[in-house]
Design brief:
The chain is an alpha/beta fold. The chain has two domains: 168 residues, Rossmann fold, CATH 3.40.50; 154 residues, Rossmann fold (3-Layer(aba) Sandwich), CATH 3.40.50. The longest helix has 23 residues. 52% of the residues are buried.
Length: 370
C-alpha cells in the first residue's frame, strides 16, 4: 500500500516562540544594499498562488494526522479535516506527545498499523523520526517534509516550506522593519530575532533572510539573534522572554517572532509602546490582541494555519497521483506570499476567521475538479 508522510509547517512557528537570553549575537547590517522603495503589502490575497489544477479528481484515500495538543496545530488540523472531507477522504487522528520527540516516529508506525495511505506530522524534525525512515522506504512509504530542504535524509522529500521560501519570508520581514526604522529612528534601531537549536535547519535560512532584508533597507540597523530552546516554547510564559529582552535593551524597536502568542497584550501590559513587527502565521489569539494593541503593531502572514491544512492535503493529492510536489514560490523569479495584518485590516481577517484568500475552499475544490 502506498503511504506518504507529510511534515507540517508548525516547526517554523515553534522556532521563534520563546527566547532565551543566554546566547546572543548582534551585528550591523552591511551598508551596501539600502533601498527606500519597499512598502508594506496589506492587500488581502485573492488566489492560491501558482498552483495548477489536478488532471482529475483525486480518488478516495485514508489519511492519518498526528495530534500533539498545540493550539496552532489544532488550526492546521481544522484545515486538514475540512480539506479531507471535501475530497471524501477518511481521516484518522493519532495522539502523540510533543514533549517526547520519539513519539513522532511512534505515530508514523501507528499510522502504518492503521493502514493509512498517508500521515501528517506537525512540528517535528528529521531526527525525531529517523529510525522509521528505513522501514518507510522498505514499505514504499514516502516521507514528505514541508519545513526544510537542508540536509534531507535519503527517503525524504520536501515541498512547500523550503529554505528558499523561509529566506524570502525573512527578507520581507527584514525589509519592512528596516524601512520603518529608517523613517522613525533614522537607522538607529535594533531588530530582535531568534534561532532554535532543535530546528536549526529551518530557522537559519529564515534569519539569514531577515538579515538580508534589513541590509537592503536599513544598513545601519542591528540584528540581534538570540538562541531559543524548545522548552521555552512549550513553557508556561512564552511571552515573558520577549518582554524581558526589550526591557533590557531599549534600542530594540522591532521583534521578528511568531505572532501566535499574546505578544501585543504582553507588551501593552508592560508599558512598551514602541512599534513592533512580528513573525508569520498569526493565530486567532494574536489577532484578537492585535485589535486592541499599539496601532503600530503588525502581524505577518505568509499562509494562515487553517488554510495551510488545505495545502497539506493538496500536496498529498499530487503525491498520490505521482505528480512532483513543488512550491510555485520556490523559484528565483517569484517570492512567497507574505502579507501584513494591521489595525486597518485585522477586523476583516477576524471576520473571515483569519482565513484567506476569500473563498479559498471553492478555489481548492475547483483546482481538485470537485
Amino acid at each position: 500500500m502506498r503511504r506518504i508522510v507529510l511534515l507540517g509547517a508548525l516547526a517554523l512557528i515553534t522556532v521563534q516562540l520563546g527566547l532565551v537570553a543566554t546566547e546572543s549575537t548582534s551585528q550591523a547590517a552591511t551598508p551596501s544594499k539600502a533601498s527606500a522603495n519597499y512598502s508594506l503589502d496589506t492587500t488581502e490575497p485573492t488566489t492560491l498562488g501558482g498552483y495548477f489544477p489536478l488532471p482529475k479528481r483525486p480518488p478516495s484515500e485514508h489519511v492519518c494526522f498526528e495530534e500533539n495538543g498545540n493550539s496552532l496545530q489544532e488550526e492546521f488540523q481544522q484545515g486538514v479535516t475540512a480539506a479531507a472531507a471535501a475530497l471524501g477522504w477518511q481521516l484518522t487522528i493519532i495522539t502523540i506527545n510533543q514533549a517526547v520527540p520519539s513519539s513522532y516516529g511512534t505515530g508514523i508506525t501507528s499510522s502504518e498499523q492503521a493502514n493509512c495511505n498517508a500521515v501528517i506530522v506537525v512540528a517535528s524534525n528529521y531526527s525525531n523520526y529517523s529510525p522509521q525512515i528505513a522501514s518507510a522506504v522498505a514499505d514504499h512509504m514516502v516521507i514528505e517534509d514541508t519545513d526544510s530542504d537542508n540536509n534531507v535524509p535519503q527517503g525524504v522529500i520536501t515541498s512547500l516550506r523550503t529554505s528558499l521560501v523561509q529566506s524570502r519570508v525573512g527578507q520581507a520581514e527584514g525589509r519592512s522593519a528596516g524601512t520603518d526604522a529608517e523613517k522613525r529612528y533614522h537607522g538607529k534601531a535594533t531588530v530582535l530575532t531568534s534561532e532554535t537549536p532543535q530546528f536549526i535547519d529551518i530557522s537559519q535560512p529564515l534569519v539569514a533572510g531577515q538579515r538580508m532584508g534589513l541590509e537592503q533597507t536599513c544598513p545601519t540597523c542591528k540584528l540581534d539573534v538570540i538562541s531559543v530552546d524548545l522548552s521555552v516554547t512549550l513553557g508556561p510564559d512564552p511571552s515573558g522572554p520577549f518582554v524581558t529582552a526589550v526591557q533590557t535593551d531599549p534600542s530594540i524597536k522591532y521583534v521578528l517572532a511568531v505572532s501566535s502568542s499574546p505578544l501585543p497584550s504582553a507588551f501593552t501590559q508592560a508599558g512598551l509602546s514602541v512599534p513592533r513587527f512580528y513573525g508569520a502565521d498569526p493565530g486567532l489569539n494574536f489577532l484578537q490582541n492585535l485589535e486592541t494593541s499599539n496601532p503600530d503593531t503588525y502581524a505577518w502572514a505568509d499562509q494562515p494555519s487553517i488554510v495551510f491544512g488545505w495545502y497539506m492535503i493538496d500536496s498529498l493529492a499530487r503525491s498520490f497521483d505521482h505528480m512532483k510536489v513543488t512550491n510555485p514560490w520556490n523559484t528565483a523569479a517569484t517570492s512567497p506570499p507574505v502579507w501584513v495584518i494591521d489595525h486597518a485590516n485585522v477586523k476583516s481577517f477576524l471576520a473571515q476567521n483569519q482565513n484567506f484568500p476569500k473563498n479559498y475552499q471553492a478555489l481548492f475544490k475547483k483546482m481538485w475538479r470537485i
